[in-house]
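Example 3.2
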Amino acid sequence: MQVSPVLAAQGTYPFVRIEQAKREAAEAGVEILDFGQGDPREPTDPLIRQALVDALEERVGYPKAEGLPELRAAIARWCAHRFGIEIDPDSEVIPTYGSKEAIFSFAQCMVDPDSPRDTVVVTEPGYPVPGRGAAFAGARVQTLPLLDSNGFLPDLEAVEDWDRVALFWVNYPNNPTGAVAPIHFFERLAELARTHDFLLCSDEAYTELWFTEPPSSALQVSDRTNVVAFQTLSKRSSMTGYRSGFIAASPQVISALRTFRPSTGAAPQEFVQKASIVAWSDEAHVARTREAYRRKRDILLDILGRKNWRVAASEATMYLWVEVPHGESSEACAERLLRHSVVVAPGSYLGEAGEGYVRIALVPTIDECRRAAAILEDVL
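Structure, written as C-alpha cells:
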C-alpha cells in the first residue's frame, strides 16, 4: 500500500516513544511517576465544566469555522486585559480546535512551495508540529538550534536567505526549555518579517504559566502586521481534551483562514466554545493553576539543587529543562530514571540540540512529586 513519502520519512512522534517505554516498564512491574508528557492533570475549573454541561443541547449541529461571535468577543477582551492590545473580534481572530491542528495546517494555507518564498523556519529542541506540518505542505524546512549560550533564543544571523522565508515559528515561553523571550526579540523578528514579507508565527501556549513576571506576547510589538499568534486553553485552563484555542492575526490572514478552515472541519463544538467563553473570562482559576505548578516546581528544584543537577532557563511553562550528568546521554539518563519509576523526556527526542538535557513536566500531583523527590534523593 502506498503512503505519502513525507509520512514515510517522519520518525516516530516523540511522545509515542515515551508511551512505549512507559508501557514496557509498567509490564515489568515498575511503578510509574509520569513527568514525561505535558498533559495537565489539574482539574478543569467547575465553572468551566458547568458551562459546557449547560450548553449541551438536545441536538448539536456542525460548528461554523469562524466560531461564535460571543467567543471571539471574549478572546478580544482577554487580549486587551492580558496584553493591553486591541483585537477586532470580527476580523482579527478565529477560534481553533486547540492549537495543534492550527499550527500543523497553517503552512497548507499560507505557503506556496513552488514559489521563491518556500521556506519555513522552525527551532529545536521543540514542539515538532510546525516542522512536520510544513513538510506535509511541501515547504522547505530550515531548523535553528536553541542553545543555552544564546538564552535559548534562535540566532537570527543563521537564517540562510530571508527572502525565501514564508513562515518563521517561535514558541515562548518555550517548550521544552522554559525560556522566555524579551519584547525586543519579538520587535526585531517582527521588523524582519515586515522587511522580507514573511509571517512571524508565535506559538504562545504557555504564556499564562509563569513564576516571576508575566511573559510578553508577539502581539505586543509596535507593528503586528506580519504577526500571527496561536493560543490555547489547554495549559492555562487545564483543558487539553476540550480542544479550544484561537489564532490572532491581521485581517488578511484571518480572511484566508476563514476560506481554508471550513474544508478541514476543525472548529470546536459550540458547547465547547461556550465553556471557552467562561475560561477566557476568568483569571482566578489560572492563578490557582500557576500556584499548583509553583509548589510542584519548588519540590523538584529543591532535590535537583541539592544533588547539583543544573536546571537551565525554566522561567515559565510547566517544564524543567535539566542538564544531565557529564558523559551520560539524555536517553540513557531517562532510561536510568525510568528504571526507578520516574518518567522524563529525553531532550534528544525533541531535537538534536536537546541532547544533554531531560525535560521534566510538572504534571503529577503534589504527593507524586514528593514521592519522586524521595526516589531522586537515592538515585541522583
